[in-house]
Design goal:
two-stranded antiparallel sheet; 43% helix; rod-shaped
């Protein structure tokens, strides 16, 4: 059998092709891993009613009540969803529900 030898005629086109193939493979791998993320199942035990004081915001309240190792952004989202809120705006004197999780 003869060994075939390939000759690169246009170096610029060759590297452009290799770069395009690399980008395509990277995009395919990225899409596969982006859609395969699964979230843990922390079950909600219930909620606690919380009276909002002057100067408080959802971020600080979330930091106070979130379970260890929980993402604060997810906790803010959970509070907003539990209270049917569209925004993170809260006012003094308002009573909101805080989800309580079983660790």
């Amino acid at each position: 059998m003869k060994n075939k030898k390939y000759l690169i005629v246009d170096v610029r086109r060759f590297f452009l092709f290799i770069t395009a193939v690399f980008i395509l493979i990277s995009l395919i791998i990225n899409v596969i891993f982006a859609y395969s993320k699964a979230y843990g199942s922390i079950q909600t035990q219930g909620f606690k009613e919380y009276y909002v004081d002057n100067g408080e915001n959802l971020w600080n309240i979330s930091l106070e009540y979130m379970p260890e190792g929980y993402d604060v952004r997810k906790m803010v989202f959970d509070i907003k969803r539990l209270n049917g809120m569209d925004t993170s705006f809260i006012v003094e004197g308002e009573t909101i529900k805080i989800p309580i999780y079983d660790n």
